[in-house]
Amino acid sequence: MDCIFCAIIAGEIPSTKVWEDEYCYAFKDIAPLAKEHTVIVPKAHIESADKIYAGNSVYVAKIFEAIPKIAAALDLGDGYRVITNIGENGCQSVKHLHFHLLGGEKLPEKIV
Ligand code: 5GP
Ligand code: ZN
Questions:
Q1: N or C, fewer C-beta in 10 Å, the chain?
Q2: Residue 43 Cα, ligand 1 centroid: separation in angstroms?
Q3: Does 111 map to a domain?
Q4: Domain tally for the chain?
């Protein structure tokens, strides 16, 4: 399967690792949109948050259990933002579920 994030998880494309456990892999975004910008992906190819169901939701639960630990490791105690883009209108460019973890500075006004 031709998926950049599956290739990153497999180590076929180099990345700067921030966190890894049985269910997820987190790495620095190649084009950071904040002082701290990490991408968190499940270690299973799930297209987007629109494709979550009872059989794979454990990956989302485990990612959200990891997020406070990742944020602490990145020293984001002053707050941060987690975003996932979905599909065409959501401007999702990589079709492997991922959560953007943004912080390290006061972020721009939110849209929600
Ligand atoms: P999306 O637009 O799909 O929500 O986010 C995809 C993110 O993946 C973008 O922020 C983009 O910079 C990042 N990205 C795309 N390709 C690579 C890559 O090869 N390495 C890393 N580290 N990040 C990538
Ligand atoms: Zn993938």
A1: C
A2: 16
A3: no
A4: 1
Give domain status of residue 69, yes or no: yes
Indicate if the pLDDT at residue 7 is higher than 90: yes
Which residues are part of the catalytic machinery?
A: 98
Mean predicted confidence (pLDDT) in 60-87? 98
The residue written with tokens 């939110």 in the block is 110
pLDDT of residue 79: 98
- pLDDT at residue 1, as a whole number: 74
Sheet of 36-42, strand order? 17-20, 24-28, 36-42, 99-103, 80-83
Domain that holds residue 63: 4-103
pLDDT tens profile 75-92: 999 999 999 999 999 999
Q: Which ligand is nearest to the CA of 90?
A: 1
